[in-house]
Amino acid sequence: MVRQASGVMSIPATVSFDNQLPASWMAHYNCADVSMVTSGYTSRLWSQDHHPQNWTKYQVWEWLQQTLDMHQIDATSIPFQNFDLDGRQLCNMSFQDFTRSAGSVGAILFQSLTDLKWNGQYGQTDMVIPGDIKTEIDADFPCSILPFKEEPSFYSPSELFDIKSSFQPNVTLASPAPSSPDPKRSQVKRHNPRGTHLWEFIRDILLNPERNPGLIKWEDRSEGVFRFLKSEAVAQLWGKKKNNSSMTYEKLSRAMRYYYKREILERVDGRRLVYKFGRNARGWRESEK
DNA sequence: AGGCCTTTTCCTGGTT
DNA sequence: CAACCAGGAAAAGGCC
């Protein structure tokens, strides 16, 4: 049987980088309003009225992640702890500081920051994404589509609600960063970026109510119970993300059922299209203190 | 190269 | 009957 290529990306289930983030980042992350972070955050991050100079450490971290994602650079290839800085400190770094802190990737980071400082927008120089949706795509799909699609515009603007996972630290980075900038480790590593797991994709739709066109809704926000309103539409969107035009709710739901065993989801009996986040699902609570 | 992991695909059978 | 739900089985791909 010939099966369709799907361009699947996956992340080891066991990855966690909670212990790699500087304490200050985690503190910020824990205190952050998740809905703010996932919806308007990225656009605010790039906007003129939020100059890099004024970034918090957490925003620096966000920028770092998104820039790496844009360039398909493995996040583990740079020592994140060298960027435990706020925006002011970051803006004071010279080109040499960047290369010292991140090897060859430092040049890319320097370029990104320079663009943001002077243009208020990144990607003026080398991005191939056309038009007005560029920034939005970059921000919203930091690690999903660029690597496989030459033309990310296959996402129509209406589909550009945030499907992003970058705000969730425990899935985006895979392994401990090296303690010092090793030139070999710091080389640009062109491999497939971390994809988003299905449950994260679902979660991120839920966390963007204002931009989620009635696909999934919370049934019980505090308990993590949610319901699919447009099951096939969600499946189609998931399929698009995976470059798989034959995705259906039937198949998506099979993948969802595999999460029961791993306690990422809990079964909700007797209610059609209803699921509940389990103890191993992260990042969906309003406050995760 | 091979094993692990997360889906994807298909299927049988049951339920709403 | 259509749309779901439950899982088994096998395989696709990606990653290490």
TrEMBL record:
Residues 196-278 form the ETS domain. Keywords: DNA-binding, Nucleus, Transcription, Transcription regulation. GO terms for molecular function: DNA-binding transcription activator activity, RNA polymerase II-specific; sequence-specific double-stranded DNA binding. It is found in: Nucleus. PROSITE patterns: ETS_DOMAIN_3, PNT. Residues 35-120 form the PNT domain. InterPro entries: Ets_dom, ETS_fam, Pointed_dom, SAM/pointed_sf, WH-like_DNA-bd_sf, WH_DNA-bd_sf. Gene3D superfamilies: Transcription Factor, Ets-1, Winged helix-like DNA-binding domain superfamily/Winged helix DNA-binding domain. GO terms for biological process: cell differentiation. It comes from the Eukaryota. The keyword DNA-binding applies. Pfam families: Ets, SAM_PNT. One of its GO terms (cellular component) is nucleus. Residues 172-191 are annotated as: Disordered. Belongs to the ETS family. This is ETS homologous factor. It comes from Phoxinus phoxinus.
